From TrEMBL:
Residues 50-210 form the JmjC domain. Pfam families: Cupin_8 (PF13621). Transmembrane segments: none annotated. Gene3D superfamilies: Cupin. Residues 234-259 are annotated as: Disordered. It is found in: Cytoplasm. It comes from the Eukaryota. GO terms for cellular component: cytoplasm. This is JmjC domain-containing protein. May play a role in cellular stress response. Its main location: cytoplasm. Keywords: Cytoplasm. InterPro entries: Cupin_8 (IPR041667), JmjC_dom (IPR003347).
Amino acid sequence: MRLPFQVGSSAGSSADGPESSWPIQLLSMAEFSSCLATQKCPKQSTWLYASYIYLDPGASPPDPQLAKIRERIDWSGLGFDRGLAACGSTLWVGGPGSKTNLHYDAYGYNIVFQVFGSKRWTLYPPESSHLLRPTRLPFEESTIFSRLSAPASVPEAQPHSVTLEPGDLLYVPRHWWHRVESLGDSASCSVNLWVPLPRQDAASRLGESLTGLMVRLLSSAPAAAQLLSEPHWRCRDDPDAAPVTSPPAPPAPGRSAGGPEERILAALVDAACDAEVLEVLSDKFMLALQASR
Ligand SMILES: O=C(O)CCC(=O)C(=O)O
């Protein structure tokens, strides 16, 4: 079995933003261990992280070794159905310095078990959201990243820090922001379980569906090209901007924007995905739906 390891840079880079897209290297566990042991690959200034490895057999082609890991996961001591919970678990295996940028998960709550190595979790309450500047681009249905590359510079966001050691269990309440980094010189491994809260999450799921719909509509070539060729889309603070002469190629959903038209489209999608806009849209959508019955 080979797992997709992100190869990140400890020194930070342009990819170290809210929507990091580190190169991926497929490695077996033996290759990963030997990389860490020899420090040849990666070099010391980089880190390796196999993150978000879903153990749900339906999420990826069935893998006998992942199935073996799944069989050994047992959350029943916490009252969860053994089989169901194991299928909903996710595996995280990283080398020294590996990390996950600041984000919150849109649904449910989270339980994390530290298997080996240690990790520092920095958590912020949902009330600090306005300080942490959520971004919705690229659109991803359940992980909402922060635009901040240095959240430590916002102490008023009330960070809570905890270090997980092997055998520790962490409960992450719904909508709490978190940033996670591996500590020390050895590898770390944790397993987590996102527990759905269907009643509380119903409104978020509707909002997310509408966001997805808007992103797809706005990113669909003819509609976006037509819309963005209108002169009023040119930035107000850039009156001399060259007119749009040819229909712009819209960015693929989930891609960062490049040229001016893509930036306008990106800003438009971002604005449309704003929580307040979505709340109004969800309410109006439900009313319209009821009226149409
Ligand atoms: O362990 C990590 O690096 C991140 C885990 C995480 O974001 C989560 O469990 O929601």
